[in-house]
Design goal:
This protein is an alpha+beta fold. 41% of the residues lie in helices and 25% in strands. Helix 3 packs across helix 4 and helix 5 packs parallel to helix 7.
Length: 273
């Protein structure tokens, strides 16, 4: 038998944790010396300890772990629990990757302060364009909130266009406005140029008005990394004494499978000169 300290070392856990498992009945010592109360464990108990730690790392509560290792949970129920937990972990991984992308974008924006040339900005007029679009609301204009909203919108939009027999005639035109309910929420429009009658059905067909004066810049890469480009555009607007009116449109010029190869033009509407 092993003392509690030896067993903790072999199991790569703390003595404190083993005492807690003992107190909750999750992992009792194989023997407790009646004279001094010292706990002793066997090597065979490492198997139960391994299962406990694995289930804990999967996010199960101690009550759930207790039922699973004591075989109070049917195999089918356990499979369902594990599938659910796997889905939760996958969602968390995606969210953390998106957060890491935003941290990297913010870092690049800081590193590029004063270095990114603003001569890439072009002042031009943007003609009116007819688009089919779908609309939803995002919690904010943060890319972490916009991305999960606009991606699915485009997926549904293109599927419905195909069912309606309408082919896009130009690039996607994502545009935004403050949501009526306020609170920093954003109305997100996922749109694409079409040649179709005005109206609405499974999607809306509208004419976006022209923009007489727009400051534009081309961003190369995934929209999750647009921050440095967007802030270069903002510096140009400020340096020129202009005033932006509303959110920039995002015109997708190229959208290959690899997001890092995307080419998107930002079009920031300006006040009249």
């Amino acid at each position: 038998m092993f003392t509690i300290g030896d067993f903790a070392r072999h199991g790569r856990v703390s003595v404190r944790m083993l005492r807690h498992y003992d107190a909750t009945g999750l992992l009792r010592p194989a023997h407790v010396d009646p004279a001094n109360g010292y706990r002793h464990y066997t090597a065979a108990q490492l198997a139960r300890l391994n299962r406990i730690i694995a289930l804990k790392d999967l996010g199960f509560t101690l009550r759930q772990v207790h039922d699973i290792v004591d075989e109070k949970v049917e195999a089918e129920e356990l499979r369902g629990m594990l599938r659910l937990r796997r889905a939760e972990l996958e969602t968390a991984v995606v969210a953390e990757r998106a957060r890491l992308t935003q941290v990297e974008a913010r870092l690049r924006a800081i590193e590029s302060e004063g270095h990114m040339p603003t001569n890439d900005v072009v002042l031009k007029s943007v003609p009116a364009v007819r688009v089919a679009r779908m609309t939803a609301t995002a919690a904010s204009f943060d890319p972490e909130d916009i991305g999960p909203v606009i991606g699915p919108l485009y997926t549904v939009l293109f599927r419905r266009l195909e069912l309606a027999g309408i082919a896009p005639t130009g690039p996607g035109v994502s545009h935004y406005e403050d949501a009526p309910e306020g609170g920093g929420r954003i109305t997100v429009h996922a749109a694409v140029q079409v040649s179709a009658p005005l109206g609405s059905g499974d999607f809306e067909v509208v004419d976006l008005p022209p923009v007489e004066r727009a400051a534009t810049i081309v961003h190369r890469g995934a929209m999750a990394t647009v921050l440095p480009t967007a802030q270069t555009l903002a510096r140009w607007i400020d340096a020129g004494g202009h005033t932006s009116v509303g959110y920039p449109r995002e015109v997708t010029l190229e959208c290959p499978e690899n997001l890092d190869d995307w080419v998107t033009e930002l079009q920031a509407p300006l006040d009249e000169a």
